[in-house]
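Lab notebook, design round three. We kept the backbone fixed and only want residue identities now. Task for the bench partner: fill in a sequence for the structure below.
Input structure tokens:
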């Protein structure tokens, strides 16, 4: 008996460490994206259609699905995020879904170490469960995929895409709160010209407090030993956003000449276009 078990063990061991490598039917994939100041990573496996009917057949409706193949799909956030009305702390989570005909349930589960579904489902480990619409596509996607699209500083869409079905999940990022705290911390100490510049540009981009952006960009220009064309470009945009069109044109002309000297054709064109727009 012992001899039989030894032979069986050696046989399994030899198969586990085969020297011949072949392609996996559902290859592993990873996507990483920075949104605002937050890093998001999704690790998953990508099964393919291979002529099969997917949803309602291979993947049944109204049952929890691993949302991929092999190990459960995992998403991680470097900061807290918001999904629906729930705040999700920074960390790593399993992604599970319940496919439906017209909509899906999207679930984040705190136990990220499972092969497929947990051996025992624990509702206390469900961090988020929201319902999202299901959209039919004209052209099918052969291999299952996640995507991160519609990026802004404060949100993105996590897409689930396979066959003729697409599921968008909106995820909000607290970028503004993080940047505001950082700005206040730095401004309360000894800010440099680059700090004033970064804060001013961010305030204009997010349309937060344009008057304060004017104050900061002027301070940045004043403190800079050698003013660059890209700094002047931002100063002109901030002036325009604050309604000071005359001042914006004046600064844009300086930025234009500086860009010509630097031989930066992109900035030359941008400044010319802005001067023309603001002059009409």
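Proposed sequence:
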């Amino acid at each position: 008996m012992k001899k039989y078990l030894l032979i069986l063990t050696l046989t399994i061991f030899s198969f586990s460490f085969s020297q011949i490598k072949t392609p996996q039917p559902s290859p592993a994939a990873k996507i990483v994206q920075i949104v605002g100041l937050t890093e998001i990573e999704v690790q998953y496996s990508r099964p393919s259609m291979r002529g099969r009917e997917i949803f309602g057949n291979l993947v049944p409706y109204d049952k929890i699905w691993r949302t991929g193949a092999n190990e459960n799909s995992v998403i991680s956030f470097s900061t807290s995020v918001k999904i629906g009305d729930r705040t999700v702390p920074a960390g790593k989570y399993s992604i599970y879904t319940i496919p439906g005909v017209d909509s899906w349930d999207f679930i984040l589960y705190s136990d990220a170490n499972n092969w497929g579904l947990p051996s025992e489902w624990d509702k206390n480990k469900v961090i988020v469960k929201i319902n999202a619409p299901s959209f039919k596509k004209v052209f099918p996607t052969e291999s299952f995929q996640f995507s991160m699209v519609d990026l802004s500083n404060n949100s993105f869409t996590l897409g689930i895409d396979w066959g003729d079905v697409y599921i968008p999940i909106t995820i909000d990022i607290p970028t503004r709160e993080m940047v505001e705290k950082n700005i206040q911390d730095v401004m309360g100490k000894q800010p440099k010209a680059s700090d004033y510049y970064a804060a001013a540009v961010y305030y204009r981009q997010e349309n937060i407090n344009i008057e304060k952006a004017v104050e900061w960009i002027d301070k940045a220009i004043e403190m800079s030993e050698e003013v660059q064309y890209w700094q002047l470009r931002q100063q002109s945009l901030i002036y325009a956003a604050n309604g000071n069109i005359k001042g914006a044109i004046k600064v844009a002309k300086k930025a234009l000449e500086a860009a010509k000297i630097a031989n930066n054709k992109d900035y030359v064109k941008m400044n010319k276009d802005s001067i023309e727009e603001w002059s009409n």
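Keep this in mind before ordering anything: The chain has seven helices and ten strands.
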